[in-house]
UniProtKB/TrEMBL annotation:
<keyword id="KW-0456">Lyase</keyword>
<keyword id="KW-0627">Porphyrin biosynthesis</keyword>
<feature type="binding site">
    <location>
        <position position="277"/>
    </location>
    <ligand>
        <name>5-aminolevulinate 2</name>
    </ligand>
</feature>
<feature type="active site" description="Schiff-base intermediate with substrate">
    <location>
        <position position="198"/>
    </location>
</feature>
<dbReference type="GO" id="GO:0004655">
    <property type="term" value="F:porphobilinogen synthase activity"/>
</dbReference>
<dbReference type="InterPro" id="IPR001731">
    <property type="entry name" value="ALAD"/>
</dbReference>
<feature type="active site" description="Schiff-base intermediate with substrate">
    <location>
        <position position="251"/>
    </location>
</feature>
<feature type="binding site">
    <location>
        <position position="236"/>
    </location>
    <ligand>
        <name>Mg(2+)</name>
    </ligand>
</feature>
<protein>
    <recommendedName>
        <fullName>Delta-aminolevulinic acid dehydratase</fullName>
        <ecNumber>4.2.1.24</ecNumber>
    </recommendedName>
</protein>
<dbReference type="GO" id="GO:0005829">
    <property type="term" value="C:cytosol"/>
</dbReference>
<feature type="binding site">
    <location>
        <position position="133"/>
    </location>
    <ligand>
        <name>Zn(2+)</name>
    </ligand>
</feature>
<feature type="binding site">
    <location>
        <position position="123"/>
    </location>
    <ligand>
        <name>Zn(2+)</name>
    </ligand>
</feature>
<feature type="binding site">
    <location>
        <position position="125"/>
    </location>
    <ligand>
        <name>Zn(2+)</name>
    </ligand>
</feature>
<dbReference type="InterPro" id="IPR030656">
    <property type="entry name" value="ALAD_AS"/>
</dbReference>
<dbReference type="Pfam" id="PF00490">
    <property type="entry name" value="ALAD"/>
</dbReference>
<comment type="pathway">
    <text>Porphyrin-containing compound metabolism; protoporphyrin-IX biosynthesis; coproporphyrinogen-III from 5-aminolevulinate: step 1/4.</text>
</comment>
<keyword id="KW-0350">Heme biosynthesis</keyword>
Length: 340
């Protein structure tokens, strides 16, 4: 080997020009891989910016037409729907109401854009008076009785026309309960994108403002995962796949890239990473202060998520990235190329 003869490797050779760099680049971002979250509220004419998430809005159903047009124009072909109900109660009734906010949203989206992939978040926390993901008895979230509500919710989303359901509650057995309920209702073709490895994370803070879903007492540590655990994430993912998950989510993304990478090594199902609200808010806040270059930071972060092994990215940055590409506002040719 030439290294032994006193010479050294010149890895810089392939970095000299943008042409060469582009040719040997291993990871690219594609707008097709983005899933854009939508927060939908009751009422008319509502377009309310979320304080801790600049550029993200709560929208009423009548505003969805314009939103969809914008997304499709930008090349974003998938959304993840969250609803903010009119009324919250102990049993999360609006979550599975055929005329609930998500069900109305799905019908409207599918009417306006039949090809848009409409994914629905299946959870109770936005719909319960106490803000917890399940039924609460004696101050505890009870697992098995909650499964029935989740299954009903998923079926009602499928009935409204959802292309895929995404359970985010982290109850044990929910994927199996949802799969069986969907099949029984005749929705054998509706896939489940399960939030398989979802951590009890401080990075969901801004989302809870957007979705009005902060728990009234306690926290989510009895069902969401402990941040220290990686092997347990693999067990969660394996369990969900066995129960019938067609694709899985690791969430949050940035502090859990090792989990994404390990999941990619181990499993063959498609993997999505959720680049969550707190991750978005940090970038926005620093950028507003002029402390970082937003464009470059966002592209680098999302490239890192893809490099770790996620093929889909659920991200609030989706529109910005698509727009930078569209308007040629990408600073350098390198960044242009990163977008593939
Ligand atoms: C639960 C749900 C949450 C998020 C997505 N689905 C909040 C939570 O578990 O508390 C967080 C997403 C984000 O922070 O962007 N319905």
């Amino acid at each position: 080997m030439s290294i032994e003869r006193g010479r050294f490797r010149r890895l810089r050779r392939l970095r000299q020009t943008e042409g060469l760099r582009r040719l040997v680049r291993e990871t690219r971002l594609n707008v097709e891989d983005f899933i854009y979250p939508l927060f939908v509220v009751h009422g008319r004419g509502v377009r309310r910016e979320v304080g801790s998430m600049p550029g993200v809005y709560q929208l009423s159903v009548d505003q969805l037409g314009a939103e969809v047009e914008e997304l499709l124009e930008l090349g974003i072909g998938a959304v993840l729907v969250f609803g903010i109900p009119a009324q919250k109660d102990e049993l999360a009734s609006e979550a599975y109401d055929p005329d609930g906010i998500v069900q109305r949203t799905v019908r409207e989206l599918k009417k306006r854009a039949p090809d848009l992939v409409v994914i629905t978040d299946v959870c109770n926390c936005e719909y319960t008076s106490h803000g917890h993901c399940g039924i609460v008895r004696d101050g505890r979230i009870v697992n098995d009785p909650t499964l029935e509500l989740l299954a009903r919710t998923a079926v009602s989303h499928a009935e409204a026309g959802a292309d895929m359901v995404a359970p985010s509650d982290m109850m044990d057995g929910r994927v199996l309960a949802i799969r069986e309920a969907l099949d029984r209702a005749g929705f054998i073709e509706v896939p489940i994108l399960s939030y398989a490895a979802k951590y009890a994370s401080a990075f969901y803070g801004p989302f809870r403002e957007a979705a009005e879903s902060a728990p009234a007492f306690g926290d989510r540590r009895s069902h969401q995962m402990d941040p220290g655990n990686r092997r347990e994430a693999l067990r969660e993912i394996e369990t969900d796949i066995e129960e019938g998950a067609d694709a899985i989510i690791v969430k949050p993304a940035l502090a859990y890239l090792d989990v994404i990478a390990a999941a990619r090594e181990r499993f063959e199902v498609p993997i999505a990473a959720y680049n969550v609200s707190g991750e978005y808010a940090m970038v926005k806040a620093a950028a507003r202060n002029g402390w970082i270059d937003e464009q470059r930071v966002v592209l680098e972060l999302l490239t890192g998520i893809r490099r770790a092994g996620a093929q889909m990215i659920i991200t609030y940055h989706a529109k910005d990235v698509a727009r930078w590409l569209r308007s040629g506002r990408i600073g350098t040719a390198l960044e242009q190329a990163l977008l593939g």
